Amino acid sequence: MQKIEHIAIAVKSLDTSVPLYEKLLGTLCYKKEQVVSENVNTAFFRSGETKIELLESTTDSGVIARFIERKGEGLHHIAFAVDNIESEIHRLKQEGFEFISEAPKRGADNKLICFLHPKHTTGVLIELCQEV
Ligand code: ZN
Q1: In whole angstroms, what is the distance from residue 88 CA to residue 45 CA?
Q2: Mean per-residue pLDDT for 26-34?
Q3: Ligand 1 centroid vs 96 CA: distance in angstroms?
Q4: pTM for the structure as a whole
């Protein structure tokens, strides 16, 4: 794995949280994008080499809505950049890790993404992402 590509935070409202993170980081949100397949709106910030990604649910029953219902707003996942997502998935499966979905899918920000199951990663949701 390379660097931490982004850290994702689940929020109730981008309208509220984008100005908050703009003040916190001292930088403007540079991109907003809807990911229809995941029922989320995303907003991106740069913090050095790492991005901060805010996630807002577009539906009451989406993954992020259910996460906030259970745990409240907060850290949702950490994403690591990889050169070749297929070979990294293969390597990690051999090490005994499980994935939430079998194949990589298209995520926000022109990435192929895949999530490890948090039961094998000390409760932290970890994403692999490859630039496409
Ligand atoms: Zn992510």
Answers
A1: 26
A2: 96
A3: 22
A4: 0.92
